[in-house]
Amino acid sequence: MMHLKMTEMWATMGSTIASFMFVWAIIRQYCPYEVRRFFEKYTHRVMGYFCPYIRISFHEFMGDRLKRSEAYAAVEAYLSANTSKSAKRLKAEMGKDSSNLVLTMDEYERVTDEFQGVKVWWVSSKIMSPTRSMSYYQEQEKRFYKLTFHYKNRDTIAGSYLEHVMREGKEIRLRNRQRKLYTNSPGYKWPSYKQTMWSHIVFEHPATFETMAMEPEKKKEIIEDLVTFSKSKDFYARIGKAWKRGYLLYGPPGTGKSTMIAAMANLLGYDVYDLELTAVKDNTELRKLLIETTSKSIIVIEDIDCSLDLTGQRKKKAEMGLDDDGDKVNAEAGRKEAKEEGGGGSSSKVTLSGLLNFIDGIWSACGGERLIVFTTNYVEKLDPALIRRGRMDKHIELSYCSFDGFKVLAKNYLKVETHPMFDTIKRLIGEIKITPADVAENLMPKSPTDDAEKCLSSLIEALEEAKEAATTATKAEELKQSSLIRENGELQDDKETAKAMKNNHCQR
Ligand SMILES: Nc1ncnc2c1ncn2[C@@H]1O[C@H](COP(=O)(O)OP(=O)(O)OP(=O)(O)O)[C@@H](O)[C@H]1O
Ligand SMILES: [Mg+2]
Protein backbone atom coordinates (compact mmCIF):
# COMPACT_ATOMS: atom_id res chain seq x y z
CA MET A 1 0.00 0.00 0.00
CA MET A 2 2.75 2.32 1.12
CA HIS A 3 4.80 1.34 -1.91
CA LEU A 4 1.85 2.13 -4.22
CA LYS A 5 1.45 5.59 -2.66
CA MET A 6 5.15 6.36 -3.14
CA THR A 7 4.98 5.27 -6.78
CA GLU A 8 1.97 7.50 -7.34
CA MET A 9 3.74 10.40 -5.68
CA TRP A 10 6.85 9.99 -7.88
CA ALA A 11 4.64 9.70 -10.97
CA THR A 12 2.82 12.93 -10.07
CA MET A 13 6.12 14.70 -9.41
CA GLY A 14 7.54 13.40 -12.67
CA SER A 15 4.59 14.59 -14.69
CA THR A 16 4.65 17.99 -12.92
CA ILE A 17 8.34 18.41 -13.76
CA ALA A 18 7.74 17.27 -17.35
CA SER A 19 4.86 19.79 -17.74
CA PHE A 20 7.00 22.47 -16.18
CA MET A 21 9.86 21.69 -18.57
CA PHE A 22 7.48 21.79 -21.50
CA VAL A 23 6.06 25.18 -20.46
CA TRP A 24 9.60 26.44 -19.85
CA ALA A 25 10.74 25.30 -23.32
CA ILE A 26 7.79 27.19 -24.90
CA ILE A 27 8.56 30.29 -22.85
CA ARG A 28 12.23 30.18 -23.86
CA GLN A 29 11.34 29.74 -27.49
CA TYR A 30 8.51 32.22 -27.97
CA CYS A 31 8.27 34.69 -25.10
CA PRO A 32 9.94 38.09 -25.11
CA TYR A 33 12.97 38.68 -22.91
CA GLU A 34 11.09 40.42 -20.07
CA VAL A 35 8.63 37.51 -19.66
CA ARG A 36 11.51 35.02 -19.69
CA ARG A 37 13.41 36.96 -17.03
CA PHE A 38 10.26 37.10 -14.87
CA PHE A 39 9.80 33.31 -15.02
CA GLU A 40 13.49 32.63 -14.50
CA LYS A 41 13.56 34.84 -11.42
CA TYR A 42 10.63 33.14 -9.69
CA THR A 43 11.58 29.60 -10.71
CA HIS A 44 15.06 30.09 -9.24
CA ARG A 45 13.53 31.46 -6.06
CA VAL A 46 11.17 28.45 -5.69
CA MET A 47 13.93 25.96 -6.53
CA GLY A 48 16.18 27.65 -3.97
CA TYR A 49 13.90 26.48 -1.13
CA PHE A 50 14.28 22.81 -1.99
CA CYS A 51 17.61 22.50 -3.74
CA PRO A 52 20.68 21.78 -1.56
CA TYR A 53 23.06 23.05 -4.21
CA ILE A 54 24.77 26.41 -4.54
CA ARG A 55 25.54 27.99 -7.89
CA ILE A 56 28.12 30.62 -8.78
CA SER A 57 28.14 32.28 -12.22
CA PHE A 58 31.14 33.73 -13.98
CA HIS A 59 29.95 36.09 -16.71
CA GLU A 60 32.17 36.95 -19.66
CA PHE A 61 31.26 40.63 -19.57
CA MET A 62 29.92 42.32 -16.46
CA GLY A 63 27.24 45.00 -16.90
CA ASP A 64 27.98 47.35 -19.76
CA ARG A 65 31.71 47.04 -19.42
CA LEU A 66 33.55 46.28 -22.61
CA LYS A 67 36.43 44.60 -20.88
CA ARG A 68 36.33 40.82 -20.65
CA SER A 69 36.10 39.56 -17.08
CA GLU A 70 39.44 38.27 -15.78
CA ALA A 71 37.65 35.69 -13.63
CA TYR A 72 35.76 34.33 -16.67
CA ALA A 73 39.00 34.12 -18.68
CA ALA A 74 40.75 32.31 -15.81
CA VAL A 75 37.87 29.80 -15.47
CA GLU A 76 37.89 29.25 -19.24
CA ALA A 77 41.65 28.54 -19.23
CA TYR A 78 41.35 26.29 -16.17
CA LEU A 79 38.51 24.27 -17.65
CA SER A 80 40.05 23.93 -21.07
CA ALA A 81 43.24 22.56 -19.50
CA ASN A 82 41.72 20.41 -16.76
CA THR A 83 38.38 19.16 -17.93
CA SER A 84 38.49 19.28 -21.72
CA LYS A 85 39.49 15.59 -21.65
CA SER A 86 36.25 14.63 -19.93
CA ALA A 87 34.00 16.97 -21.94
CA LYS A 88 32.29 15.34 -24.89
CA ARG A 89 31.44 18.46 -26.85
CA LEU A 90 34.27 20.88 -27.40
CA LYS A 91 34.70 24.12 -29.25
CA ALA A 92 37.90 24.76 -31.22
CA GLU A 93 39.08 28.35 -31.57
CA MET A 94 42.26 30.04 -32.69
CA GLY A 95 44.05 31.33 -29.59
CA LYS A 96 44.26 35.10 -29.21
CA ASP A 97 47.48 36.39 -30.90
CA SER A 98 48.65 32.83 -31.31
CA SER A 99 48.62 30.29 -34.05
CA ASN A 100 47.55 27.17 -32.14
CA LEU A 101 44.04 25.83 -31.64
CA VAL A 102 42.47 26.18 -28.21
CA LEU A 103 39.82 23.68 -27.13
CA THR A 104 37.12 24.86 -24.75
CA MET A 105 33.82 23.39 -23.57
CA ASP A 106 31.00 23.87 -26.02
CA GLU A 107 27.81 25.68 -24.97
CA TYR A 108 25.63 23.84 -22.42
CA GLU A 109 28.33 21.21 -21.94
CA ARG A 110 28.69 19.95 -18.38
CA VAL A 111 31.84 18.59 -16.75
CA THR A 112 32.77 17.49 -13.26
CA ASP A 113 35.84 18.42 -11.29
CA GLU A 114 37.12 17.20 -7.94
CA PHE A 115 39.02 19.13 -5.30
CA GLN A 116 40.08 17.76 -1.89
CA GLY A 117 37.50 15.01 -2.29
CA VAL A 118 34.67 17.45 -3.08
CA LYS A 119 32.83 17.08 -6.36
CA VAL A 120 31.73 20.14 -8.33
CA TRP A 121 30.00 20.65 -11.66
CA TRP A 122 30.75 23.24 -14.29
CA VAL A 123 28.36 24.18 -17.09
CA SER A 124 29.11 26.55 -19.92
CA SER A 125 26.02 28.47 -20.86
CA LYS A 126 24.71 31.63 -22.43
CA ILE A 127 21.71 33.91 -22.22
CA MET A 128 20.28 36.29 -24.75
CA SER A 129 20.01 39.75 -23.33
CA PRO A 130 18.84 42.99 -24.94
CA THR A 131 21.36 45.71 -25.70
CA ARG A 132 20.59 49.20 -26.88
CA SER A 133 22.29 49.77 -30.18
CA MET A 134 21.76 53.22 -31.66
CA SER A 135 18.01 53.69 -31.29
CA TYR A 136 16.71 50.13 -31.35
CA TYR A 137 16.97 47.06 -29.16
CA GLN A 138 18.71 43.93 -30.27
CA GLU A 139 19.53 40.72 -28.48
CA GLN A 140 23.09 39.87 -27.62
CA GLU A 141 24.65 36.59 -26.50
CA LYS A 142 26.08 36.70 -22.99
CA ARG A 143 28.20 33.72 -22.13
CA PHE A 144 28.92 32.49 -18.64
CA TYR A 145 30.18 29.50 -16.67
CA LYS A 146 28.13 28.17 -13.82
CA LEU A 147 29.71 26.31 -10.92
CA THR A 148 27.44 24.04 -8.84
CA PHE A 149 28.31 22.37 -5.53
CA HIS A 150 26.62 21.07 -2.41
CA TYR A 151 25.96 23.72 0.24
CA LYS A 152 27.83 21.68 2.90
CA ASN A 153 31.07 22.27 0.90
CA ARG A 154 30.54 26.00 0.74
CA ASP A 155 33.67 26.90 2.75
CA THR A 156 36.00 24.64 0.78
CA ILE A 157 34.72 25.87 -2.56
CA ALA A 158 34.35 29.57 -1.83
CA GLY A 159 37.73 29.56 -0.14
CA SER A 160 40.40 27.28 -1.47
CA TYR A 161 38.82 25.81 -4.64
CA LEU A 162 38.04 29.14 -6.28
CA GLU A 163 41.46 30.45 -5.34
CA HIS A 164 42.99 27.33 -6.91
CA VAL A 165 40.95 27.77 -10.12
CA MET A 166 41.89 31.46 -10.42
CA ARG A 167 45.58 30.85 -9.76
CA GLU A 168 45.86 27.91 -12.15
CA GLY A 169 43.76 29.65 -14.80
CA LYS A 170 45.93 32.76 -14.69
CA GLU A 171 49.10 30.67 -14.91
CA ILE A 172 47.76 28.74 -17.90
CA ARG A 173 46.83 32.02 -19.61
CA LEU A 174 50.28 33.41 -18.99
CA ARG A 175 51.88 30.26 -20.36
CA ASN A 176 49.74 30.28 -23.48
CA ARG A 177 49.91 33.98 -24.22
CA GLN A 178 51.99 35.26 -27.11
CA ARG A 179 55.10 36.76 -25.61
CA LYS A 180 56.50 40.11 -26.72
CA LEU A 181 59.87 41.62 -27.46
CA TYR A 182 60.00 45.30 -26.56
CA THR A 183 62.52 47.95 -27.45
CA ASN A 184 62.89 51.62 -26.62
CA SER A 185 65.10 52.29 -29.61
CA PRO A 186 63.72 55.23 -31.66
CA GLY A 187 65.05 53.57 -34.83
CA TYR A 188 62.32 50.94 -34.72
CA LYS A 189 58.79 51.85 -35.77
CA TRP A 190 57.04 48.70 -34.67
CA PRO A 191 53.27 48.68 -34.34
CA SER A 192 52.16 49.80 -30.94
CA TYR A 193 48.53 50.26 -30.02
CA LYS A 194 48.94 52.61 -27.15
CA GLN A 195 51.23 55.51 -26.54
CA THR A 196 54.04 54.01 -24.53
CA MET A 197 57.76 54.45 -24.49
CA TRP A 198 58.25 50.88 -25.68
CA SER A 199 57.46 49.43 -29.11
CA HIS A 200 56.96 45.71 -29.45
CA ILE A 201 56.76 42.76 -31.79
CA VAL A 202 55.91 39.13 -31.08
CA PHE A 203 58.81 37.33 -29.43
CA GLU A 204 59.58 34.21 -31.42
CA HIS A 205 63.14 33.13 -30.69
CA PRO A 206 63.54 29.35 -30.89
CA ALA A 207 66.52 29.08 -28.48
CA THR A 208 66.14 26.76 -25.53
CA PHE A 209 68.55 25.53 -22.87
CA GLU A 210 68.39 22.14 -24.55
CA THR A 211 69.93 23.55 -27.73
CA MET A 212 72.57 25.60 -25.86
CA ALA A 213 76.12 24.35 -26.08
CA MET A 214 77.60 24.34 -22.59
CA GLU A 215 78.60 21.96 -19.81
CA PRO A 216 75.57 19.98 -18.59
CA GLU A 217 76.19 20.74 -14.89
CA LYS A 218 76.43 24.48 -15.52
CA LYS A 219 73.28 24.38 -17.62
CA LYS A 220 71.43 22.46 -14.90
CA GLU A 221 72.55 24.95 -12.26
CA ILE A 222 71.31 27.94 -14.30
CA ILE A 223 67.96 26.29 -15.05
CA GLU A 224 67.46 25.45 -11.38
CA ASP A 225 68.35 28.99 -10.36
CA LEU A 226 65.82 30.46 -12.80
CA VAL A 227 63.02 28.05 -11.90
CA THR A 228 63.61 28.60 -8.18
CA PHE A 229 63.43 32.35 -8.72
CA SER A 230 60.15 32.12 -10.62
CA LYS A 231 58.58 30.10 -7.79
CA SER A 232 59.86 32.25 -4.95
CA LYS A 233 57.18 34.92 -4.64
CA ASP A 234 56.46 34.05 -1.02
CA PHE A 235 60.15 33.74 -0.15
CA TYR A 236 60.97 37.21 -1.49
CA ALA A 237 57.96 38.65 0.35
CA ARG A 238 59.10 36.97 3.59
CA ILE A 239 62.64 38.31 3.45
CA GLY A 240 61.40 41.77 2.44
CA LYS A 241 63.19 41.87 -0.92
CA ALA A 242 61.78 42.95 -4.28
CA TRP A 243 61.04 39.92 -6.47
CA LYS A 244 63.78 40.42 -9.02
CA ARG A 245 67.16 38.95 -9.84
CA GLY A 246 70.16 40.26 -11.74
CA TYR A 247 72.25 38.16 -14.12
CA LEU A 248 75.57 39.21 -15.61
CA LEU A 249 76.49 37.22 -18.72
CA TYR A 250 80.06 37.75 -19.79
CA GLY A 251 82.43 36.17 -22.26
CA PRO A 252 83.97 36.60 -25.71
CA PRO A 253 81.78 37.38 -28.76
CA GLY A 254 79.86 34.40 -30.14
CA THR A 255 79.72 32.36 -26.95
CA GLY A 256 75.93 32.49 -26.59
CA LYS A 257 75.09 35.43 -24.30
CA SER A 258 72.19 36.71 -26.42
CA THR A 259 71.11 33.14 -27.15
CA MET A 260 70.95 32.45 -23.42
CA ILE A 261 68.65 35.43 -22.83
CA ALA A 262 66.21 34.00 -25.39
CA ALA A 263 66.48 30.58 -23.75
CA MET A 264 65.74 32.16 -20.34
CA ALA A 265 62.65 33.91 -21.73
CA ASN A 266 61.43 30.68 -23.31
CA LEU A 267 62.05 28.67 -20.16
CA LEU A 268 60.09 30.99 -17.89
CA GLY A 269 57.57 32.31 -20.44
CA TYR A 270 58.68 35.92 -19.86
CA ASP A 271 58.52 38.95 -22.15
CA VAL A 272 61.81 40.59 -23.11
CA TYR A 273 62.55 44.33 -22.81
CA ASP A 274 65.67 45.07 -24.83
CA LEU A 275 66.81 48.38 -23.35
CA GLU A 276 68.97 50.53 -25.62
CA LEU A 277 70.63 52.67 -23.01
CA THR A 278 72.18 55.12 -25.47
CA ALA A 279 68.68 56.07 -26.67
CA VAL A 280 67.55 57.04 -23.16
CA LYS A 281 67.69 60.79 -22.67
CA ASP A 282 68.30 60.95 -18.94
CA ASN A 283 67.68 59.25 -15.60
CA THR A 284 64.03 60.42 -15.49
CA GLU A 285 63.33 58.77 -18.84
CA LEU A 286 65.06 55.62 -17.61
CA ARG A 287 62.73 55.52 -14.61
CA LYS A 288 59.66 56.01 -16.83
CA LEU A 289 60.78 53.11 -19.00
CA LEU A 290 61.17 50.95 -15.93
CA ILE A 291 57.70 51.77 -14.65
CA GLU A 292 56.18 50.77 -17.97
CA THR A 293 57.66 47.27 -17.91
CA THR A 294 55.34 44.50 -16.84
CA SER A 295 55.77 41.60 -14.47
CA LYS A 296 57.19 38.30 -15.78
CA SER A 297 59.76 39.97 -17.94
CA ILE A 298 63.48 40.16 -18.61
CA ILE A 299 65.03 43.60 -18.93
CA VAL A 300 68.16 43.28 -21.04
CA ILE A 301 71.03 45.71 -21.47
CA GLU A 302 73.41 44.24 -24.03
CA ASP A 303 77.09 45.18 -24.14
CA ILE A 304 76.78 47.27 -21.00
CA ASP A 305 80.45 48.27 -21.23
CA CYS A 306 79.88 50.15 -24.51
CA SER A 307 76.24 51.16 -23.97
CA LEU A 308 77.10 54.23 -22.02
CA ASP A 309 79.95 56.29 -20.80
CA LEU A 310 79.34 55.04 -17.30
CA THR A 311 82.74 56.16 -16.17
CA GLY A 312 81.73 59.59 -17.48
CA GLN A 313 81.97 61.29 -14.12
CA ARG A 314 85.56 60.25 -13.82
CA LYS A 315 86.31 61.28 -17.40
CA LYS A 316 84.83 64.72 -16.89
CA LYS A 317 86.97 65.13 -13.82
CA ALA A 318 89.96 63.99 -15.81
CA GLU A 319 89.14 66.45 -18.61
CA MET A 320 89.01 69.28 -16.10
CA GLY A 321 92.31 68.10 -14.73
CA LEU A 322 90.90 66.99 -11.37
CA ASP A 323 91.91 63.82 -9.61
CA ASP A 324 89.38 61.53 -7.90
CA ASP A 325 89.30 63.76 -4.82
CA GLY A 326 88.63 66.83 -6.91
CA ASP A 327 92.16 68.22 -6.71
CA LYS A 328 93.67 70.01 -9.70
CA VAL A 329 96.24 67.87 -11.51
CA ASN A 330 98.06 68.31 -14.76
CA ALA A 331 95.22 69.47 -17.05
CA GLU A 332 96.96 68.46 -20.24
CA ALA A 333 97.60 64.93 -18.98
CA GLY A 334 93.96 64.65 -17.85
CA ARG A 335 92.53 65.67 -21.23
CA LYS A 336 94.81 63.18 -22.97
CA GLU A 337 93.67 60.37 -20.68
CA ALA A 338 90.02 61.20 -21.33
CA LYS A 339 90.53 61.18 -25.08
CA GLU A 340 92.36 57.87 -25.01
CA GLU A 341 89.51 56.27 -23.06
CA GLY A 342 87.14 56.81 -25.94
CA GLY A 343 85.40 60.10 -25.32
CA GLY A 344 81.81 58.70 -25.05
CA GLY A 345 80.06 60.46 -27.95
CA SER A 346 76.54 59.50 -26.78
CA SER A 347 74.08 62.34 -26.10
CA SER A 348 72.48 60.31 -23.29
CA LYS A 349 72.71 61.86 -19.85
CA VAL A 350 72.07 58.62 -17.97
CA THR A 351 74.57 58.31 -15.18
CA LEU A 352 75.92 55.38 -13.27
CA SER A 353 73.87 56.35 -10.23
CA GLY A 354 70.76 56.56 -12.45
CA LEU A 355 71.43 53.06 -13.66
CA LEU A 356 72.06 51.74 -10.15
CA ASN A 357 68.74 53.26 -9.11
CA PHE A 358 67.11 51.59 -12.09
CA ILE A 359 68.39 48.22 -10.94
CA ASP A 360 67.67 48.37 -7.25
CA GLY A 361 66.09 51.70 -6.33
CA ILE A 362 62.61 51.97 -4.81
CA TRP A 363 61.00 52.04 -8.25
CA SER A 364 62.58 48.80 -9.33
CA ALA A 365 60.24 46.90 -7.01
CA CYS A 366 57.14 47.91 -9.03
CA GLY A 367 55.70 45.05 -11.00
CA GLY A 368 57.73 42.23 -9.47
CA GLU A 369 58.95 38.97 -11.00
CA ARG A 370 61.62 40.46 -13.19
CA LEU A 371 65.08 39.51 -14.32
CA ILE A 372 67.64 42.16 -15.19
CA VAL A 373 70.34 40.86 -17.51
CA PHE A 374 73.55 42.63 -18.53
CA THR A 375 75.87 41.23 -21.16
CA THR A 376 79.47 42.23 -21.77
CA ASN A 377 82.59 41.04 -23.54
CA TYR A 378 84.82 42.82 -21.03
CA VAL A 379 83.70 42.20 -17.48
CA GLU A 380 86.90 43.76 -16.10
CA LYS A 381 85.93 47.13 -17.62
CA LEU A 382 82.73 47.42 -15.59
CA ASP A 383 82.42 49.49 -12.48
CA PRO A 384 82.44 47.05 -9.51
CA ALA A 385 79.44 48.89 -8.01
CA LEU A 386 77.37 47.98 -11.04
CA ILE A 387 77.94 44.26 -10.82
CA ARG A 388 78.27 43.63 -7.12
CA ARG A 389 76.17 40.76 -5.71
CA GLY A 390 72.75 42.02 -4.78
CA ARG A 391 72.61 43.98 -8.03
CA MET A 392 73.88 41.35 -10.41
CA ASP A 393 73.19 38.33 -8.22
CA LYS A 394 74.50 35.68 -10.58
CA HIS A 395 77.59 36.05 -12.75
CA ILE A 396 77.66 33.56 -15.62
CA GLU A 397 80.72 33.16 -17.77
CA LEU A 398 80.09 31.94 -21.29
CA SER A 399 83.29 30.68 -22.68
CA TYR A 400 84.87 28.89 -25.63
CA CYS A 401 83.34 25.67 -26.88
CA SER A 402 84.08 22.53 -24.88
CA PHE A 403 83.69 18.99 -26.17
CA ASP A 404 80.37 18.71 -24.30
CA GLY A 405 79.23 21.90 -26.01
CA PHE A 406 80.30 20.54 -29.38
CA LYS A 407 78.26 17.36 -28.79
CA VAL A 408 75.12 19.46 -28.21
CA LEU A 409 75.74 21.39 -31.43
CA ALA A 410 76.45 18.18 -33.40
CA LYS A 411 73.15 16.76 -32.14
CA ASN A 412 71.27 19.98 -33.02
CA TYR A 413 72.81 20.56 -36.42
CA LEU A 414 73.60 17.06 -37.71
CA LYS A 415 71.48 14.77 -35.52
CA VAL A 416 74.58 12.71 -34.66
CA GLU A 417 75.48 11.72 -31.13
CA THR A 418 78.60 9.64 -31.85
CA HIS A 419 80.93 9.45 -34.83
CA PRO A 420 84.48 8.13 -35.39
CA MET A 421 85.62 11.73 -36.10
CA PHE A 422 84.58 12.82 -32.58
CA ASP A 423 87.94 11.67 -31.09
CA THR A 424 89.95 14.00 -33.36
CA ILE A 425 87.55 16.87 -32.63
CA LYS A 426 87.81 16.22 -28.87
CA ARG A 427 91.62 16.41 -29.04
CA LEU A 428 91.63 19.59 -31.16
CA ILE A 429 88.93 21.37 -29.11
CA GLY A 430 91.03 20.67 -25.99
CA GLU A 431 94.04 22.31 -27.63
CA ILE A 432 92.62 25.51 -29.10
CA LYS A 433 89.99 28.14 -28.32
CA ILE A 434 87.00 28.19 -30.66
CA THR A 435 83.64 29.86 -29.98
CA PRO A 436 80.36 27.92 -30.18
CA ALA A 437 79.36 30.37 -32.94
CA ASP A 438 82.35 29.25 -35.06
CA VAL A 439 81.67 25.57 -34.37
CA ALA A 440 78.01 26.08 -35.29
CA GLU A 441 78.97 27.81 -38.53
CA ASN A 442 81.20 24.88 -39.55
CA LEU A 443 78.54 22.32 -38.70
CA MET A 444 75.95 24.10 -40.81
CA PRO A 445 75.39 22.21 -44.11
CA LYS A 446 76.31 24.53 -46.99
CA SER A 447 74.52 22.59 -49.72
CA PRO A 448 71.70 20.00 -49.79
CA THR A 449 74.26 17.24 -50.47
CA ASP A 450 76.37 18.04 -47.38
CA ASP A 451 76.11 15.16 -44.89
CA ALA A 452 77.35 14.82 -41.31
CA GLU A 453 80.75 13.54 -42.48
CA LYS A 454 81.32 16.58 -44.71
CA CYS A 455 80.38 19.03 -41.97
CA LEU A 456 82.54 17.29 -39.36
CA SER A 457 85.52 17.28 -41.79
CA SER A 458 84.99 21.00 -42.39
CA LEU A 459 85.09 21.56 -38.61
CA ILE A 460 88.30 19.50 -38.25
CA GLU A 461 89.85 21.53 -41.08
CA ALA A 462 88.90 24.80 -39.37
CA LEU A 463 90.25 23.55 -36.03
CA GLU A 464 93.55 22.50 -37.62
CA GLU A 465 93.89 25.84 -39.38
CA ALA A 466 93.21 27.66 -36.10
CA LYS A 467 95.80 25.46 -34.35
CA GLU A 468 98.39 26.24 -37.00
CA ALA A 469 97.66 29.96 -36.79
CA ALA A 470 97.97 29.81 -33.00
CA THR A 471 101.32 27.94 -33.24
CA THR A 472 102.67 30.49 -35.75
CA ALA A 473 101.50 33.36 -33.52
CA THR A 474 103.17 31.79 -30.46
CA LYS A 475 106.42 31.27 -32.38
CA ALA A 476 106.37 34.86 -33.62
CA GLU A 477 105.79 36.08 -30.08
CA GLU A 478 108.65 33.95 -28.73
CA LEU A 479 110.93 35.26 -31.47
CA LYS A 480 109.93 38.82 -30.64
CA GLN A 481 110.60 38.25 -26.95
CA SER A 482 113.98 36.66 -27.54
CA SER A 483 115.09 39.42 -29.95
CA LEU A 484 114.00 42.00 -27.36
CA ILE A 485 116.05 40.21 -24.71
CA ARG A 486 119.01 40.07 -27.10
CA GLU A 487 118.66 43.76 -27.95
CA ASN A 488 118.49 44.61 -24.26
CA GLY A 489 121.58 42.48 -23.62
CA GLU A 490 123.52 44.16 -26.45
CA LEU A 491 122.47 47.55 -25.16
CA GLN A 492 123.68 46.61 -21.72
CA ASP A 493 127.02 45.39 -23.19
CA ASP A 494 127.38 48.65 -25.15
CA LYS A 495 126.70 50.66 -22.01
CA GLU A 496 129.25 48.69 -20.04
CA THR A 497 131.88 49.08 -22.84
CA ALA A 498 131.21 52.81 -22.96
CA LYS A 499 131.52 53.02 -19.18
CA ALA A 500 134.80 51.11 -19.20
CA MET A 501 136.18 53.33 -21.97
CA LYS A 502 135.11 56.44 -20.04
CA ASN A 503 136.84 55.14 -16.87
CA ASN A 504 140.02 54.39 -18.84
CA HIS A 505 139.95 57.84 -20.32
CA CYS A 506 139.56 59.49 -16.91
CA GLN A 507 142.39 57.43 -15.37
CA ARG A 508 144.64 58.58 -18.18
N1 LIG B 1 76.50 28.38 -26.36
C1 LIG B 1 75.88 28.33 -27.55
N2 LIG B 1 74.99 27.36 -27.82
C2 LIG B 1 74.37 27.28 -28.98
N3 LIG B 1 74.57 28.14 -29.99
C3 LIG B 1 75.44 29.13 -29.79
C4 LIG B 1 76.13 29.28 -28.55
N4 LIG B 1 76.92 30.35 -28.64
C5 LIG B 1 76.75 30.86 -29.86
N5 LIG B 1 75.86 30.14 -30.55
C6 LIG B 1 75.45 30.38 -31.93
O1 LIG B 1 76.18 31.49 -32.38
C7 LIG B 1 75.36 32.58 -32.72
C8 LIG B 1 75.85 33.84 -32.02
O2 LIG B 1 75.67 33.72 -30.64
P1 LIG B 1 75.22 34.91 -29.69
O3 LIG B 1 74.67 36.02 -30.49
O4 LIG B 1 74.37 34.35 -28.62
O5 LIG B 1 76.63 35.32 -29.11
P2 LIG B 1 76.96 36.48 -28.08
O6 LIG B 1 77.75 35.86 -26.97
O7 LIG B 1 75.73 37.21 -27.72
O8 LIG B 1 77.94 37.38 -28.95
P3 LIG B 1 78.21 38.97 -28.79
O9 LIG B 1 79.09 39.13 -27.58
O10 LIG B 1 78.95 39.30 -30.03
O11 LIG B 1 76.91 39.65 -28.67
C9 LIG B 1 73.97 32.22 -32.29
O12 LIG B 1 73.06 32.50 -33.30
C10 LIG B 1 74.00 30.75 -32.02
O13 LIG B 1 73.48 30.07 -33.13
MG1 LIG C 1 75.06 39.17 -28.10
From TrEMBL:
Keywords associated with the record: ATP-binding, Hydrolase, Magnesium, Nucleotide-binding
The protein's required cofactors: Mg(2+)
Gene Ontology MF terms: ATP binding; ATP hydrolysis activity
Bias type Basic and acidic residues, positions: 327-342, 487-499
A Pfam family of this chain: AAA_lid_At3g28540
Record-linked Gene3D superfamilies: 6.10.280.40, P-loop containing nucleotide triphosphate hydrolases
Region Disordered: start-end pairs: 320-348, 470-508
Catalytic activity from the UniProt record: ATP + H2O = ADP + phosphate + H(+)
Source organism, top-level taxon: Eukaryota
Keyword Metal-binding: no
InterPro entries: AAA+_ATPase (IPR003593), AAA_N_dom (IPR025753), At3g28540-like_C (IPR058017), ATPase_AAA_core (IPR003959), ATPase_AAA_CS (IPR003960), Mitochondrial_chaperone_BCS1 (IPR050747), P-loop_NTPase (IPR027417)
Residues making up the signal peptide according to the UniProt record: none
Domain (AAA+ ATPase) ranges: 243-402
Swiss-Prot/TrEMBL GO biological process terms: response to stress
Family label: Belongs to the AAA ATPase family. BCS1 subfamily.
Protein name (Swiss-Prot/TrEMBL): AAA-ATPase ASD, mitochondrial-like
Species name: Senna tora
